[in-house]
Give the backbone structure.
Amino acid sequence: KEKVKITKEQQALMKVVVEAYNRHQIPQDVAKKLLQEQYSEEENFLLLTEMATSQVQVLVEFTKNIPGFLSLNHEDQIALLKGSAVEAMFLRSAQVFSRKMPNGHTEVLEERIRKSGISEEFMTPMFNFYKSIGELHMMQEEQALLTAIAILTPDRPYVKDQQAVERLQEPMLDVLRKLCVLQHPQEPQYFARLLGRLTELRTLNHYHAEMLTSWRMNDHKFTPLLCEIWDVE
Ligand SMILES: Cc1ccccc1NC(=O)[C@H](C1CCCCC1)n1c(-c2ccc(Cl)cc2)nc2cc(F)c(F)cc21
């Protein structure tokens, strides 16, 4: 049984990514807000657009700290950000949802989200994803690396130099694979399950524009940044 060992360079790479991930987190805690009181569908939509707008801003900051990202072709940098922003938002939402909370809080949070204004048809795929992320009990190193791996997906639309992106994504995949073997020795499939979540994330990507335009309210207003990143308006 080969002894899996994380090299010095891999330790350094992980440290950079995890520190950037922790540094660039959403300031106010939306879960706390949602648990404190019930908002109207309009207020929830506004809250979502504010959260998502600040999420894109922190995503850009996080991505700039991924070693090698700024040396990519500039159009490709934009294509990777545009292609991963929605996934990063759902991944972040899933991590917020699956945080350990006092008894009954997760149920209240789920109820508030169910009533927030999103149309019924999207609830099942969205909560299935949140629960499948929760079952993994991911460590923050795994969360940070998985987010970086999602951003560095070579086959996003309009990416020209896919090889250059692969060369950045591969070292992240290598260190994540080793981390999974070391942290979950009794679960050899854990790494594969983590990557499977990225596939599930892409399906949510597919729904997101409709989730927003079908929000139970009229006259959906988006910030200019969201119009850029989301396929709306
Ligand atoms: C948590 C976060 C961080 C950064 C960026 C965005 C968000 N996300 C949000 O603010 C929205 C709120 C927004 C207010 C209404 C209820 C859902 N949100 C969504 C969501 C639902 C549908 C879509 Cl289309 C997108 C997101 N899933 C959530 C799960 C949670 F556990 C949570 F606490 C908030 C969650």
Remarks:
- The chain has a mean pLDDT of 93.
- Residues 26, 30-31, 34, 44, 47-48, 51-52, 55, 89, 92-93, 96-97, 109, 113, 116, 118, 208, 211-212 surround OMK (CB under 6 Å).
